[in-house]
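re: that chain from earlier
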Amino acid sequence: MSLSRGDQIQLEVQRVVSYCLFVLLGPVLKLLSRYYFHYRIDDLREIRDQYRDLQRQSEGALLVCTNHLTFIDSLIQGVILNSMWGYLSDFSSLPWNLPESTNFEHSLAYRVICYLGKSIPVTRRASSEQSRRSMSKMQYVLERGDNISVFPEGKRSRDGRVDVEDFSYGAGQLLANSPETRVLCVYMRGMKFGGFAEFPPKGEEFTLRMALFEPKSELKGLRWVRDVSTQIVGQLKVMEDEYFSEQGRALSGSRSERGDAREPRTIR
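^ sequence. v structure.
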């Protein structure tokens, strides 16, 4: 299903409005994360440098595939991956988000934030025509070179771990229609709590790690979509296992013995 000219214009207008007002929204998110929630992050500068390098290296857009624990994972990830000025200098690096419409349609404030935050609303159990239209919007955004952030699991994890048994095939569908898009797997969690919640607790310290991932499959059609989606979720699970393995080693020795005396940085 090709995207209508009207929908293309709406997306372009949304992008321009979002960019123009980002100088207002960006500082608000920064102040909230820093002074209200007191969120902190390990290796903030290194993470942003890595993200910018990966963005520059990619010929096409990035499909940012992330594990999912809270309602505001997308906002936290966005604040961590780049600075406000970094996004303004390369607005394609601010990923479009795909929020579930029932989570915000009841609130005008939430709808405005989602619009300005470059969001394409999706609806669970939507009609075939609605689903195709949403997918066409995502494909259009990727083809114009803008990143998209998705949660391959399709829902928030109830036990705080990546669900490799029950997940959606949305990531695979997007890649099937946008072959030039590269996959960036991102594993993020709070180090104090890190489980299922609506919002991370105040004072949370986050860890985030990322890696380009190239799924490969000899299958065709829907089986290709399923296989690729499974590989992406599997890669997130590998990253999760590595995180907990490192945490276990850290508990067995002091920070001084590991030569790691750095304190988490406040998100700026």
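DSSP finds eight helices and six strands in the chain.
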